[in-house]
Every structure is written in structure tokens, then in C-alpha cells.
Amino acid sequence: MSENLSPIDQAKANAARKAVDFVESGMKVGLGTGSTAAWMVKRLGERVRDEGLRIVAVPTSSRTAALAREVGITVITLDEAKWLDITIDGADEFDAEMNLIKGGGGALLQEKIVATASDRMVVIADSAKEVAHLGAFPLPIEVIPFGVNVTRGLVEELLGAFDVMGRRTTIRMNGSDPFRTDEGNFILDLHLGRIGDPRQLALMLNQVPGVVENGLFVDICDRVVIGHADGRVEVRDIHDCSIDVTELPVGDTTNIFANIEE
Ligand SMILES: O=C[C@H](O)[C@H](O)[C@H](O)COP(=O)(O)O
């Protein structure tokens, strides 16, 4: 293990390293956002540089786009790509059905568009992200700034009809101003505690005027790669219900990423 990484970062880096093995030359790749996805982007850049891996990539945020360019990955737009072979992204929570909560970093809108436009979505995570029921992590929804408090009221009213533990909502802040997404929108965080029916909630939230998209990813993720600090990596696939545990070779995770700062 790298001396420089905390156990949690090592686990994230291990998941990223394993997932990047699924990428082949000629692929169009969706690049997620967040601290786990950043490891994946760095590792992909390494493969481009050291192995001559030929890929083009569509980032899901301005942050990821900047990092991808920095590590030498060719970045194109989703409209140029039209469709992607694979998207690799992090998650805030995932359950046994591979339903996800995403958007902790505010990038859920582009992430959902990109993942949906991909043959396969692979989630990379440390084991702390696995939950029996989604909802302990506040569910982010992207809303337009116009009439945000009216939208917020409508969302709270809607939540009254759902099997959730809590109904408190907060507008995400960045210092004393509301946090702005890449599209200039706001994020409402829904403190639900536990979500009884993620599929129904995801559908209904998007019916509220002012809501652009919500961070529930239902039936989008195909595979979850769970990294552990000791080098073990578990790969679960929703289609063949397989679970595969491998151990990254000793040395493979040593200082691989240490020279690239996020
Ligand atoms: O908006 C951000 C994304 O959905 C992230 O993928 C998610 O928040 C997980 O981030 P991290 O890997 O930093 O925990």
C-alpha cells in the first residue's frame, strides 16, 4: 500500500484501478466526477501515456474535464460521441439492486445523461458506500434558481406521499451563496433517512416544475467495483449476478497515483 494514501483513498484507488482494466483501445468512455472518479481519470491517463491506450472521453463536469486534459486524455462532447461504450463513476450510496444516490459533488445531471447514453455504467466505490436502504446520504436534486423556494415547497409536499423517514430539505450552500452546478442551477438536498421506493420517488420528483433532475440512479448501473484498502477488489455484475473477488498484485497499488495531485 502507498504510504501517502489514507485507507479510504487507497480503497477508492484500488476500485478505480480495477475498473480501468475494463477499458479497451477504441472505446468512447464516460468519465464520472468526484474523489473516486478522479483516481479513475488519473489511472486512465496513465494507461494512455504508458500503454498507448487510444480512447476518447466525455467528462461529466468541468472539474473532470480539466483533470482529464491534464493527464492527457482526449476530451470530446457527448454530442460528438453520440453514444459511449462505458462510463465509470463514483456514487454516494449503492444498494443490492445497484440503485444509486449520486450528486454529492453536484454533478448528477451530466452524470445521469452520460451514464444513460452508455452501453455500461460501472460504479467504483469503497465499501462504506454500500447500504441496505438508500437515503442516509441526503438525496441531491438539481433545481432551477427561479422560484426555488416554491419548488422546494412542492417537493416537500410531494415527499408527504412517500415512504421516507425524514422530509427536511436544504439548499446547498457554497459559503454564503447557493452552490451552483455547471449549468448554473441550485442543488436541493433531501434529508430522507430511508427511501422505501427509489424507483417511484425518482419518477415523481422529476414531475415537479423547477426540478431538472434527481440523484437517484435506478436501473442505470450495470456493475459495481468495490475497493478495499488491503488490495482486495470485489466486482459485482447485475446481469449475470456474478461476484468476483480479486487481489491486486502486491506493488500494483504502491505509489501508482502518488505523483499526480488531484
Ligand atoms: O456529484 C458527484 C458525484 O455523483 C460523485 O460521483 C459522488 O458524489 C461520489 O463522490 P466521491 O467519490 O467523492 O465520494
Automatic annotation (TrEMBL):
Keyword tRNA-binding: no
Residues annotated as signal peptide: none
Keyword set includes Isomerase: yes
Pathway: Carbohydrate degradation; pentose phosphate pathway; D-ribose 5-phosphate from D-ribulose 5-phosphate (non-oxidative stage): step 1/1
EC identifiers of the protein: 5.3.1.6
Active site per UniProt: E111
Classification via Gene3D superfamilies: 3.30.70.260, 3.40.50.1360
A Pfam family reported for this protein in Swiss-Prot or TrEMBL: Rib_5-P_isom_A
Main enzyme class: isomerase
Keyword annotations: Isomerase
Binding site for substrate: T33, G34, S35, T36, D89, G90, A91, D92, K102, G103, G104, G105, K129
Catalytic reactions on record: aldehydo-D-ribose 5-phosphate = D-ribulose 5-phosphate
Entry's Gene Ontology molecular function annotations: ribose-5-phosphate isomerase activity
Chain's role: Catalyzes the reversible conversion of ribose-5-phosphate to ribulose 5-phosphate.
Assembly with partners or alone: Homodimer.
Similarity comment text for this entry: Belongs to the ribose 5-phosphate isomerase family.
NCBIfam families to which the protein is assigned, alphabetical: PRK00702.1, rpiA
Protein name: Ribose-5-phosphate isomerase A
